[in-house]
């Protein structure tokens, strides 16, 4: 492996809404990036890994991500490696609010087509580490592919205590308009705003209470299987956690949308491959489909009736007619599932907006009610 080119690996991480953003879940690839095993970090504050110079800015970023209910946003900052000789690693960190947790990924930040793709598909890019300014890449005038969820913005508001802020106090309406403007602008504009804003060291933030969040569910899937089994479900808002674990993701996609969603998954997997052909991160994809709430057997192919075995001349073999009659009379309930399948699907289907992303050891799907 070329020492000048760090591996394009990424791990999926989930943190809670506490001030120090404690780790709730991590995939195995965290050991490749930062040297830690998942069990060493679960329950520990993720902000403990942040470079001391960037800690105030990252803590404010964590708060703002939750308060503004952001999705598919990207930040560049430094995290501590377990090996002290490796110091701090420049990382690209994606974040999405999923109702009661923050889900996302962490990957090495290295210039190249992969970094450009990740930045161009994110809804917002924020630069914390000054040396990462070259990652501010965005297609000109791209609109937000998934506008913010229509939720109430009631709750705590950042109060700025610096002299500059005291001359022009922040109001809830100002905060809302600023939030909408940030999410609709380019990554470069968003990052400049974050650097030119109030000094995080003089910003008072309150995590209790936090504003109401929109309802989203995060699913983590096995990317190395055609059926993409579900290995983690963040909440029961749409699907029952105990029901989905280990089952194919496509069991919960309406049959009419299965082919389309499979094509999206193939595309995301294709993006999530580095120059060496290894699994890696691959930006964000956005789509809409119908979620099949109670699940189905997506691998079930209706078997065709076996051909009638006949003697020469077309007459049935002895006992064949009797067996056919017995099969109909002995299993009268066999037609019941078909009756249920023909009933209204309104209780089974729910249209959802989805964010798809690929990572070294998994796929992530964020679901919300379709706008």
Describe this structure as you would to a colleague.
The chain is an alpha+beta fold and 371 residues long. The chain has one domain (10-294, 349-369): Beta-Lactamase, CATH 3.30.450.20. It contains eleven helices and 13 strands. The protein has helices spanning 30-34, 38-41, 55-67, 113-121, 163-167, 172-184, 187-196, 241-244, 255-271, 320-330, 336-341, and strands at 10-15, 23-26, 73-80, 88-98, 101-108, 124-127, 159-160, 203-204, 216-221, 230-233, 284-292, 349-359, 362-369. A hairpin with a 2-residue loop joins strand 4 (88-98) and strand 5 (101-108). The longest helix has 17 residues, at 255-271. The radius of gyration is 25 Å and the shape is globular. The relative contact order is 0.15. The model is unreliable at 1-6, 150-198 and 307-343 (pLDDT under 50).
